[in-house]
Amino acid sequence: MTALLLRTFLPSPLTCRTPPPPTPTPPLIRGPRFGELTTSARVRLTRTNATAPTKPRTLQEGIAELYDESSGIWEEIWGDHMHHGFYDPDSSVSLSASDHRAAQIRMIDQALSFAGISEDLANKRVVDVGCGIGGSSRYLATKYGAQCEGITLSPVQAERANALAASPGLADKVSFQVADALDQPFPDGQFDLVWSMESGEHMPDKAKFVNELVRVAAPGGTIIVVTWCHRDLAPSEESLQPWEKNLLSRICDAYYLPEWCSTADYVKLLKSHSVQEVKRADWSQYVAPFWPAVIRSALTWKGLTSLLRSGLKTIKGALVMPLMIEGFQKGVIKLAIITCRKLD
Ligand code: SAH
Predict the structure, then answer these.
(1) Ligand 1 mutation pick, 202, 212, 227, 252, max ligand atoms within 8 A of CB
(2) Region entry SAM motif III: which residue ranges (predicted)?
(3) Using a 6 Å cutoff on CB, does residue 204 contact ligand 1?
(4) Does 71 contact ligand 1 (Cβ within 6 A)?
């Protein structure tokens, strides 16, 4: 996920104000689809828009609006990348802004390395699913020579991503458009690398999401998903504990997030397809400095003025940031990486 003070002040995770988490019972693999908000979500979205007397928004519209509003502020404070940084577990707390930006880049390199990809992306085709303002794509094109196509629900992000790519040598290597990850505008088997960096947490239908990731991957292509998950359930458990559900529910409420699933759920979904070498890891320990840094950045003069300019939704999101830290510390929230290769 990373949505906005969330994603505004919170990198990727927060970006969302999502539909209130449906009451989780069994593992959450399939939540409501776009346009299928739960009653409570509909009520919430309607209430949120009280000053704009339009029809109730779908989750898809809510996510798009959230990013339309918050991406500029996020870019101003945090730069190109709307995802967690990958830190040395022994990192000191006094990291500089450039240290945090370097950590966000390190997250990309670590994800590639985990998936067994080294320097061999020259002219390989990459789809950046949930691309934000295109930070990953520009990096993959510039450093590794990849040819990238990004999709996002936010028209503002797509426009900004294309503007940032309008430079000699880059414009012909990356492009961005508004499209739904659950119904991607690409033919089957198109991409050597399918990249989803902290967008999966926004997907209301995890099975359809995984299905699309596998569908657009070329035979032998690699799929990399870095996403927010809840902890795996023990064999004796049928669901999270009530206090855990409550914590996630408060986060979802602030960020337009649908129901979460576990890393094990992703592995199960991927293994139901023709893929091999499914690997997973819990990177929570490597991202620990991130949320405290986002909170600190929100408490600077620049952060506070941006926050005030951004409006109540962003402020509400900011207030929930400590819950992300609590969720990680208590082991309910995991920053997971799951990778695999589509069969040749
Ligand atoms: N991967 C980027 C941005 C992460 S923020 C980065 O690391 O910087 C989450 C992104 O997911 C946003 O761009 C949002 O528009 C996108 N997103 C969420 N749901 C989506 C969907 N159903 N289809 C396409 N993009 C989606």
Answers:
(1) 202
(2) 216-225
(3) no
(4) no
Q: How confident is the model at residue 93 (pLDDT cuts 50, 70, 90)?
A: low
In tens, the pLDDT along 222-259 reads 999 999 999 999 999 999 999 999 999 989 877 889 99
> 142 has which bridge partners?
none
23 or 157, greater pLDDT: 157
What residues pair up with 174 in beta bridges, in sequence order?
A: 148
What is the Cα–Cα distance from 70 to 254, expressed in whole angstroms? 14
What would the two tokens of residue 130 be? 């949930």
Is 67 a pocket residue for ligand 1 (Cβ < 6 Å)?
yes
Residue 14 is given by DSSP the state G
Q: Tell me: the pLDDT tens digits for 265-319? A: 999 999 999 999 999 999 999 999 999 888 888 888 888 888 777 766 667 777 8
